[in-house]
């Protein structure tokens, strides 16, 4: 789009021009110009409109800012529901499909403890810990998102259909797969990266030494999200994964809700913002962007960790905000996770 000028111009461009576009090449260029491409896109759009599915392209304002900053963010998302995908606070809760009573109880306790902070609870709608997290969220009137390895219109497992319908009223269903796509083994790891990317923190409640929960934790570490693991009995299969994460310093130990709340700075009042210039440029900033810009007016260069501390904005969301300010031509990235005014 940047090379051609707009989305529509991409499809009007000759093959020779598309072929020269950085990162495209012969195969993609021919695929873009195939006559079936736009017809198929129109069919997908018509189906989404019929089913009430919102299509969120990477450049849309409603597209989750937390995902936009990631190197492997989906180009398109499909969403059904009422949740704010850019809400201030989010938590991902994941774990084994074969949850114990202990795991379900811990999941419920976490959600009850964070209820006063009104976070968005994110999980994968699977058996075990996932569905326990969604149901506990609904019971405590917290919005909850189910990230799916299928189209929004195909709930898997089907026995969770009733819960999924309730989530449409308080939360929603999200996927990168177009309507009609059935769940497939290769789609689940990709789904897990979206759970990790959307979350300010991931809590692994119960997990074996291999499985989707550990994949989600790995993505979360790569994305610089907070990761917590609930320790368990040494002889329990579904505590081994959590204990391994803690032992390898890939997760903080979760012992009480305060561990999570303190790590995310939810117990701290937001830093006061200095007075903002009333110039036309400043008026285009969101409240959080204005908060960041007030610091750059005090000094022209900041490390991302210092910005997070001063603004009390979590690193995941802050990275997205800084990326948007780069797109606006206001900031530039320096080596060592530093940012500078242009």
TrEMBL record:
InterPro entries: DprA, DprA_WH, DrpA_SLOG, WH-like_DNA-bd_sf. Residues 56-264 form the Smf/DprA SLOG domain. SUPFAM superfamilies: MCP/YpsA-like. GO terms for biological process: DNA-mediated transformation. It comes from the Bacteria. The lineage of its organism: Bacteria, Pseudomonadati, Bacteroidota, Cytophagia, Cytophagales. Residues 286-337 form the DprA winged helix domain. This is DNA-protecting protein DprA. The gene is dprA. Belongs to the DprA/Smf family.
